[in-house]
Every structure is written in C-alpha cells, then in structure tokens.
Amino acid sequence: MPISSSLVAGPTPAGSDPPQTPAPSTLTSRDRRVDLLALVAALALAVWVTSGLWADPNGRAITVNSSDQALFEWLLAYGAHALTHGADPLFTSLLNVPDGVNLAVNTSITVYAVVFAPLTYLIGPPATFLVVLTLNLAATALAWYWLLSRHLVRHHAAALLGGLFIGFAPGMVSHANAHLNWTAGWLVPLLLWRVLRLHTPGRWVRNGVILGVLVAVAFSIAAEGLFFTALACAVFLGTWSLDRTRRERARAALPTFLRGLAVAGAVAFALLSYPLWLHFLGPQRYHGTGFDPRIHAEDILAFAAFPARSLAGVAGLDSSLAPNPTEENSFFGLPLLILAVACLVLLWRHAEPGRRATLRALAVTAGVFAVLSWGPRIKIDGHILDVPLPYALLGRLPVFNAALPSRLALVVAPILGLLLAYAVQQLARARLDRRARIGWTVGFAVALLPLLPVSLLTIEREPIPRFITSGDWRGYVSEGGVLAPLPFTLDVTPDGQRWQAYALAHRQGEFAIPSGFFLGPGGPDGRGRIGPVPRPTDALLAEVAETGTVPPIDDADRAAARADLRHWRVEAVVLADRVHGAKFPVHVDALLQAATELFGPPQRVNDVYLWHLPPTGAVSGLTGVGRWGRD
C-alpha cells in the first residue's frame, strides 16, 4: 500500500480518491523535467550558500564558527586514519593526553568519515568538509522533494517548493555554519519513509531491517537529530491514531507495525551496541551538557523574526534573538507564519474527515515542538521570565538533558514545508478566479522571497605552519608522542587539531596533543564541558593568548609548568608565527614572552618557535628558565 494512501496522505477534496504513489512508468515528461529542475536548483542553492568557502577551501573558514569547522575537519581526518590503521573510530588517545576522548558522546560522524576517507586522503580534510557540507544541503532538499513527489503529493511543482523550502529553511542555513550533523537533514525523510512502511503486511521483517540500518547510520551522523525525529514520529502517529476516524485503521495496523519496530530496534541495537556502551558506560563519558537550557532556548519572538543569512537579513531585518548565529532554529518570519495558517485553513476546508486527522496531527506536532523549543522558562525578546514550561520537567530526563531545547524548533520547518506543498497542490486543482490566484501568489512571494538564503560569511584562516606541512615535526616528536601547540588547543584556539588533521590525512604519522576541542566530563554538577579541566599552565597561557597581558611568572609557576608537562608527557612545545583565534585575535608576541619565561629560550625551527624535550618526557632537570634546546 503506498504511503500516501495510508497514514500521511495529503488532503484531497471531499469525496475524491486519495492520491496514489505514481509508479516510475507513469511519470510524465513534465514530471521528469521537474525532477531535473529539483536537482539543478538544490545543487545551485547549496553551492551558493557555501560559495565563500569554495573560493579557497584550505585558506578560508566560516566566520561565526571556525572552531566547529576545525573539529569536523579533524573528525574526517581521524576517521579516515582509524579506518586505514585499525584504530578505534569512537575513542582516541590523540587528544586530551593522557585521558583520551570518547568520540561516541561527541558528534563523531563516523559514517561520513569512512565513506569519504578516499576523498579526505586525496584533497585533504578542509576540502572534504566543504564537499560534505554542500552535499548535505543539496541532498536534504532532494530527499524531501523525493518523499513529497513520490509518496505524499501528485503535483511535482508543489513537491519542489516544499522540498526546497525544507532543505534551505532558516534553521538549515544557520546550521550550515559548520554543522555537518544538523545539515544532514536528508536522513529525516528516509527515516519517515521507512517508519511509515512498517505497517505493510507481510514485509515487517524486511522493513524493520532497513529501518534499523538507517537508525544506526543516523545515530553516527546526528544522534540528536535522530532523537528529535523519533519524538516527532511518536507525537504525529499518536495524535493521528487517536482520531476517531482512524482508530480502527490504526488498531488493525498496530501488530504489524510493532513487529517491524521490534526488528528495527534489534538491528539498530546490534549495530550500535559498542557506541551505546561507550555513550552510557564508557570512559570519558558525561551526562548532560554544560550549556544552560534557558539560554539555549528559542525566543518566542524568534518564530516571527527573519534569519541573518537571508535576503531580509542582509536588508537589515535580522535580529539578535538567537543565542548565537548557528542556532537560528525557527526564524520563519511573520509573513510565513500567517501564510501557514492560511494554508491550514484552506486544506481543512477542502479535506474529508479522514484527511483532517493528518492535518490535526501535523498541527499538534508543530505546536508541541514549538512549545518544547521554548525551553524551561519563557523567553521573550531576550528576557527570561519566571514562567515554567513543559521542558522544565523533560530537561531532567536522560537524553533530554544532553539536547539543546532551541533545536526542537527544527522539527517545525518540515511541517511548514508539507503544508506549503499540500496547499500548492490544492490551489492547482481548485478553480480560482483571477483575483484569488493573484492573492495567493502574492502571499507566497511575500512569505518566501525574504527567506531566500544568501552565502555564508567567511574569513581568511591562518595557514598551517611549514613545520607541520613539511613533516619537520617528526624530528622532534616520536611516533605517537605528544606535541603541545601554543596556545593549548580548545574551541577558541583550534589550530592544534588542524595541524593534527593535516598530519593524519597526509600520512605523516601520529602525534598527540594535551588538550583539544571536544565534549568531556568535568563540567558543573557532573555535567559535560568543552575541553579538559584546565591545569595551571594551559589556563595561564590561555589568558595570555586572549588578553595579551603577561602576568609576573615566578619559580612556582615554572614548577607547575614542569609538573603539567610531565603529566601530559610532552616532547615538544610549539608556537607558530600566526595563530587562529575563533573568537578573538591571539596575541602571539605575549605568548612567546610568557612561554620563554616559563620554559626558557626557544629554538627557531622553520616557521615556529620550539621548546624541545627528549622522548622520555623527563622535565625534572629543568630549573628556573632552564634550557630546552636540542643538543
């Protein structure tokens, strides 16, 4: 039975037959042309949004989120290295020496790292990152267009509008600021397709296996998005099945659906047993992020605001209602919200009772996720009111406590896209007079044109030093030994992971670093934090890097530095001439002064300053500003 004639059929005029899934042989030449247009439009928009990086993939970075870009580049490089060297893809000792990093509780994108490993070795992590980001955007629009045109609506132009809107919705463009996980929206229509296939009689084993594999892939790429998709399916199907016109049908389909769901769960659990063990029981795990859910909640006014990277945004109609530029998760604009209500009224008026169950379920799902996205307390125009919301209870539960509530608003965009597609199909069938057609056309234009995306902002990124690219580092660090870039690697100073990614992707060998940009234990109230808990030396140098002020350094500071270097097993400390700061300019001259007072005079090697230790990491012989140079 086609999906469109079962659970999620688009509303049809009263008394008419439900739309059937068109077989490939029945597709008209016009439909094929729309398919081609969808492909061209999706790719063109994806390249346009990321065009600032295409000018120089290795030399440019996303302005507002160069730190996450560096992290995902590292994940691609490490995943390829793990695949070709038999290393654990979900736990690494190359970061956060000596404790390591649990990548299963981070966004490991293992599937991407494996699939694109040949490309990573061929063109490097930054260019591979750009390819994946661009394909994510295009594939999301195309996957939604496919689901709409093949299973939900018969009108391919309506499906094209819906698919392009969902694929380039404000939240998607916002997360295109370096989030390879959240831009993988193509997973959602595939998951929905297989969930809605579970009730097919006689195929519950096959359908369950396929869904289970998809769940495992989605967990690897975007576990938080998978969680939201499962919640949305539960809310939608629960609301739909409780409708009095659908109860008998839902009751009849339930046994087959549950059998298929059990198979999917068993397959997914088998494939994810090790990642799940690491996630909940493994070393360096954490429970709950260190992000404040009140801050990372969607402002109520944000739903009617315009996004920054849109025509309306560049025209000056943007706002500062998001916690940061990568989290504009709603930002639909008031005209689109009004249009969505008008579309819902139009569809409701022309729908038979059974189709109204689908509309009601869509509306309820959108409402539930909008309210949950508001977080534990109401926030209006940046002001948090002491008015509790449902998320105040849910946020204490496992899994919920590791999610950011504002991102729940991302579920609303596909629902709006579905309503737009259904409405365009309904309007194409209706016999409207000229005035009504002009009115609807103007309404769609006023709502959608301001949301057309513009390209992401990019900046020049400091180059990887020749000391790394030439392989000179191998003369000072043993295979797998510890190299400490200054300032120590964190989200705001990500160069160390970029250097490491270059070495891994160019098959130079391994070096570890003491710190890193990752989520791990050590946050407030037992929650997670970004990077390791600071030790005296990295905390001191991080402050110098940001402020440019070198505090008085005495023998106690030097003794602490010797203890820290011994703890990290450091063989070489390196300071490049140019250092990238993701949030502030790094004061290299002040760092050089502070490091010299701590470690003694450095060597000049190629284009870096270097303090060298023997491979044993013995630093007990250092006294005062003792000498580190190679003999």
Provide a brief overview of the structure.
The protein has helices at residues 29-49, 51-54, 66-85, 110-115, 117-123, 125-152, 156-167, 170-175, 187-197, 204-242, 247-281, 311-317, 334-350, 353-373, 391-394, 412-429, 434-448, 466-469, 495-505, 536-547, 555-568, 588-599; strands spanning 60-62, 91-92, 101-102, 377-380, 383-388, 458-460, 482-486, 519-521, 528-530, 570-576, 603-605, 608-612. The chain has 631 residues and is α+β, with helices and mostly antiparallel strands. The strands form five sheets. A four-stranded mixed beta sheet has the order 7-10-12-11. A two-stranded antiparallel sheet has the order 1-6. A two-stranded antiparallel sheet has the order 2-3.
Keywords:
single chain, 631 residues, alpha+beta, four-stranded mixed β-sheet, two-stranded antiparallel sheet, 12 strands, elongated, disordered N terminus, disordered C terminus
Question: How are the secondary structure elements laid out?
Answer:
Elements: H1 29-49, H2 51-54, E1 60-62, H3 66-85, E2 91-92, E3 101-102, H4 110-115, H5 117-123, H6 125-152, H7 156-167, H8 170-175, H9 187-197, H10 204-242, H11 247-281, H12 311-317, H13 334-350, H14 353-373, E4 377-380, E5 383-388, H15 391-394, H16 412-429, H17 434-448, E6 458-460, H18 466-469, E7 482-486, H19 495-505, E8 519-521, E9 528-530, H20 536-547, H21 555-568, E10 570-576, H22 588-599, E11 603-605, E12 608-612
Parallel strand pairs: 7-10
Antiparallel strand pairs: 1-6, 2-3, 4-5, 8-9, 10-12, 11-12
